[in-house]
Amino acid sequence: MNNTAHSLILVAVIAGITILLRFLPFLVFRSGAPKTVLYLGKVLPYAIIGMLVVYCLKNVSFTDGSHGISEILSVGLVVALHKWKHNTLLSVAVGTACYMVLVQAVF
């Protein structure tokens, strides 16, 4: 089997599994989701975002180099922009761009 055929089969299998996982909850919970699942659907997104923030900021050193200034400014910008516009995509995109400019050009 050549590389192209192998790659196409691999992508097809991954796509099929992804589609199955997306439709599985609708097939399993036809009559309605249990209260536990609904609760987790409300709570987990905030917990995951919190874990991502901790993961992203865990190696920031406040004693070396720029003292975490670019990270603090970028996080502050994301929070302020999200409070103002309530648009997650905009907040993350602008925060990422701000961080990259600060890291590459300023610090």
What is the strand and helix layout of this fold?
Elements lengths: L2 H26 L6 H23 L11 H17 L2 H19 L1
Helix pairs in contact: 3-4
Spell out the key features of this protein.
107 residues; 4 helices; 79% helix; extended
Summarize the structure.
This protein has two domains: 1-32; 34-106, no CATH class. The protein is 79% helix and 0% strand.
Q: How far apart, in Å, are the first and last alpha carbons?
A: 50 Å
Low-confidence stretches: none
How many domains make up the coordinates? 2
Give me the Rg, rounded.
21 Å
The run of helices and strands is: HHHH
Helix content: over 70%
Number of strands: 0
Mean pLDDT: 92
The total of helices stands at 4
Which overall shape is indicated by the principal axes computed on the Cα atoms? Answer: extended
Strand content: under 5%
Report the biggest beta sheet as strand number plus sense, adding barrel if it closes: none
Class from helix and strand fractions: mainly alpha
Task: Please give a structural write-up.
- The mean pLDDT is 92.
- It is extended and about 50 Å long.
- The N and C termini lie far apart (50 Å).
- The protein has 2 domains: 1-32; 34-106, no CATH class.
- With 107 residues, it is mainly alpha-helical.
- It is built from 4 helices and no strands.
- It has helices at 3-28, 35-57, 69-85, 88-106.
